[in-house]
Design brief:
Blueprint lengths: L1 E3 L2 E3 L3 E7 L2 E11 L2 H20 L2 H17 L1 H12 L3 H21 L6 E4 L5 E9 L2 E5 L7 H12 L3 E5 L5 H13 L7 E3 L4 H10 L3 E7 L2 H13 L3 E5 L4 E5 L5 H13 L9 E7 H16 L19 H16 L3 E4 L2 E2 L7 E2 L2 E6 L4 H4 L6 E7 L2 H9 L3 E2 L1 E5 L3 H10 L4 E4 L15 E2 L2 E2 L9 H4 E9 L2
Parallel strand pairs: 7-8, 7-10, 8-9, 10-11, 12-13, 12-20, 13-18, 17-18, 20-21
Antiparallel strand pairs: 1-2, 3-4, 5-6, 6-24, 11-23, 14-17, 15-16, 19-22
Helix pairs in contact: 1-7, 2-4, 3-4, 3-6, 4-5, 9-10
Length: 474
């Protein structure tokens, strides 16, 4: 069911939701909406805004705090749903749900800290106040790889700053979105202020981007879709916030601690089945440590236990869908065609009918190869050998993407130079490129991101607009 104007309503048709760990597990059938449903949601959101904003920041803070508490209470249930429909292993799924609760709790505090300024005027007797106000009705389009955390870090600031929301989750993960929507509704969100419209992006997403009452779009997903949204939103003069792809470099210098480097690359490249926009997909390794690093990483990668998301001994779950699995396997074949030695990468037979793939390393890669330039979004990493720091930095920056970048080194000189000179929105030193805190800005440069940052206090830049008020005291 879709949630529109505080009511659970059927859609135009139903979408079948199956478990990527086990295709015999039918999770359920979920409503797919239409452009008419988007219109109804947008109309309801616009009508509900004045009363919602009049309630003031304390009411918004208390609502978000209640939502956070309920998400924590139901973390095991929501996490199990997330693991079943997305394929993330259960401990990772539950941790993601708890992060969603942390996001709501953080923005409960931010609702009471909406910034403003009192500025002295250049004219005697005149006071100047700079205020922030909600932008209005915002459309949120979220991906399948983090079906709890990413909706949370869009919904929470939108509500905290007094906006109304129309959410369209990815078709592959309707169950998690439905559970989050139920909590938001049951914890007292006013009718019309939060709306859930599920369905295909070509229908629901397009209707959101084109609707005149939806004044802002926050999107996380692929580069082609993000660019199409930007073009369409420009016609309607909508503000946009786009988080798109990544081809993230992890540099390993000769002086790096080998244990630290291998652990960071193993986590960054392969955990969550490599289905993270911040994954380490290019491992740029200096010649002196290259062979030892590859030997150790290969051994630990091949030892990773791939299996069903709910199995206690699984370390890597399935690929999210058969279509994504085929994309991954096509890139494995391409790596061989381009001249790489491929370790792993094959489809695996599991104990259930699932989309299992062994993680893959592409050795002897160059940064000119397609497998080093195109986002795969699977458990695949290219290893690129370099001679020195300057070459490593040049290769790291030679990409159309610029989301996250990392370096493993014991040199303060290298670490500082990399932090300042790499072209990425987030930089990690001796840490995986994937894995960020919930209270600081998230976003990248170049083709990875467009518009204001997500998360943390910087979220205010997207979800509010600035008003300057003058007052003559006489």
């Amino acid at each position: 069911m879709n949630l529109i104007d505080g009511m659970w309503l059927p859609g135009d048709h139903l979408i079948q939701n199956r478990n990527p760990s086990d295709q015999s597990d039918l999770i359920g059938h979920y409503a797919a909406g239409t452009a008419s449903d988007v219109d109804r949601a947008a109309q309801a959101a616009s009508a509900a805004l004045p009363d919602w904003q009049a309630k003031g920041p304390l009411a918004r803070a208390e609502l978000l705090d209640r939502i956070a508490r309920r998400i924590d209470e139901e973390a095991a249930v929501i996490g199990r749903m997330l693991a079943r429909e997305e394929g993330k292993i259960l401990p990772e799924a539950i941790a993601e749900v708890r992060r969603a609760a942390q996001v709501f709790r953080f923005f409960a505090g931010e609702a009471l800290r909406l910034p403003g300024e009192a500025i002295a005027s250049v004219r005697p007797g005149v006071d100047v106040e700079v205020m922030r106000e909600a932008v209005g009705v915002v459309g949120l389009i979220t991906p399948w790889n983090f079906p709890a955390a990413i909706p949370a870090w869009k919904i929470a600031p939108a509500l905290a700053y007094g906006n109304a929301v129309v959410l369209k989750p990815a078709e592959l993960v309707p169950g998690t979105a439905h559970l989050l929507a139920r909590i938001i509704h049951e914890e007292g969100c006013p009718p019309g202020i939060f709306n859930l419209v599920m369905g295909p992006g070509s229908v629901v997403g397009q209707a959101m981007v084109e609707h005149p009452l939806i004044v802002a779009i926050s999107f996380t997903g692929s580069v082609p879709t993000g660019r199409a949204i930007a073009r369409a939103a420009a016609l309607g003069m909508k503000r946009v916030q786009l988080e798109m792809g990544g081809k993230n470099p992890m540099v390993v210098m000769d002086d790096a601690d080998l244990d630290t480097a291998v652990a960071a690359c193993l986590n960054g490249a392969f955990f969550s089945t490599g289905q993270r926009c911040t994954a380490s997909s290019r491992l740029i390794v200096q010649s002196g440590i290259h062979d030892a690093f590859v030997e150790r990483l290969t051994k630990e990668m091949l030892a990773l236990r791939v299996g069903p998301a709910l199995a206690e001994d699984s370390q890597i779950g399935p690929v999210v869908s058969v279509a994504q699995l085929q994309v991954n396997l096509d890139y494995v074949a391409l790596a061989r065609t381009e001249g790489c030695e491929v370790i792993g990468g094959e489809r695996l037979n599991g104990p259930t009918d699932g989309f299992f793939q062994r993680p893959a390393l592409f050795l002897n890669a160059s940064n000119r190869m397609r497998i080093s330039r195109e986002e795969i979004f699977g458990p695949c990493a290219a290893v690129i050998r370099v001679g020195d720091f300057d070459e490593a930095l040049e290769v790291a920056n030679d990409s159309e993407f610029g989301l996250s970048a990392g370096i493993c080194t014991n040199s303060l000189t290298y670490a500082r130079a990399f932090r300042h000179r790499v072209r990425a929105g987030m930089v990690m030193v001796n840490l995986p490129t994937a894995g960020v805190d919930f209270h600081v800005p998230f976003g990248g440069t170049k083709g990875s991101s467009f518009g204001p940052r997500e998360q943390g206090r910087h979220a205010v830049e997207f979800y509010t607009t600035v008003k300057t008020a003058y007052c003559f005291a006489g």
